[in-house]
Structures are given as structure tokens and as C-alpha cells.
Specification:
The structure holds 2 protein chains of 2 kinds. By secondary structure, chain A is mostly beta strands. Chain A contains no helices and 11 strands. Classes of the chains: A mainly beta, B mainly beta.
Chain lengths: 109, 123
Amino acid sequence: VMTQSPLALPVTPGESASMSCRSSHSLLYSTGKTYLSWYVQKPGLSPQLLIYMGFNRASGVPDRFSVRGSGTDFTLIISRVEPDDVGVYYCMQGLEFPLTFGGGTKVEI
Amino acid sequence: QVQLQESGPGLVKPFQTLSLTCSVSGVSITSTTNLYLAWIRRPPGKGLEWIGDINYRGTTHYNPSLRSRLTFTVDTSKSQVSLELNSVTAADTAFYYCATYDISSSGGYLEYWGHGTRVSVSS
């Protein structure tokens, strides 16, 4: 089970924002890889990959986006929030089937 | 450039079967058995739900909550995968997306997504 908080996150452009994702089981595999990914669904668009393997930014994702944490508790941090960052952010565990998403955090200006 | 395109009827009657197709370009779906095409949906006002996936050999994984109503197929000649969901109800109303998923140890995430297709279940 993946649990995200808060449900909604009001942000101010230029400031930092953070959101939590918790897994009921550790997402750290014995190989040392973390099977957690993050996605953002901006208004009117399909979801897009933001972060993969725990901490790696997908192609084209600015370094304003970062992840901290390990095992079962993770935090997505957006530094210097921009208006274009609005959307719903989801975390997903890819360690085992069925793949499961958190409920999402809606980032709004 | 990897592109995925979902297609299907926008409206399905209750208790009928929903059929969707995902066409893939920019990557060979037969390049590796590790490459799966996954289906995900987002009901109105709710979050994302993983439905299941299939690779070119027909190996599948299903969401247990939907398994009894689901069928996935693959057509390698057309680079397409399809989903059939039978006995639909209003609860199946959602945007449906397909996405690529690498099952290898370097994967575990949904890398490329289609634009999605809206499905409404109504009489």
C-alpha cells in the first residue's frame, strides 16, 4: 500500500515544496536498487515520468526536483516552484505486482 | 521517439465489453521479453490505478481486482496490444492510458505514456 500526503499542497512560486510517499513494505531490493518512481499529471495531459529507481530524474526533468528518504519513507522536493509545476504528483512502487500508486498530491499555486 | 496511441470507443453500455488498443511506435515491442505494455486508468476525481500488462510473447500480469473481467492480447505485426474488459459498469468510467514498462532489474517504472482515451460507461 502506497500512502501520499498531503492531499493538496498550496505552493508559492519561488519557494520550496515537499510531499510524502510511504510504502507499507521496503522498496529497497537486495541489489541496492529502490523500486520507487514518481509521476506528475499536469492539467489536460497524461501522466509523465518524473523520477525513477528512487532518486533518478527522468530525461528533461530539471534538478529542482529531488527525492530524499529510503526504504519505506520518501519525500519529493520541488525547489524554486514554478507555475508550470502545478498538477497531481503520484508515487508508485515497482518492486512487485500488482504495481500500486499512491493516492496523489495535488500541487496548486 | 517512442510514441503510444490509445484508441477505442468513447462510450460503452453497462454490462457490455470495453475494447481498447494501444499502438506503439519508435520502439520494437519484440526487442526484449522485458518490455511490457501496461494499462493504467484514472477514474474521474480519483487517482491512478494499474490495470495490468503484457509483453510480446503474451506473458501477462493482472490487477487482482480486475483479473476476472480482463483479457490482454498482442499483435506483433501491428505493434499493438489490446485490452478487453467485460461486464463494465459505471465504475469503469475513466481515462485509460497505456505505457511502457521494463520488468528488468533496471526497470520497474512506467517510462513512456500515451495521451490516453476517455471511456464512459452509460446506457
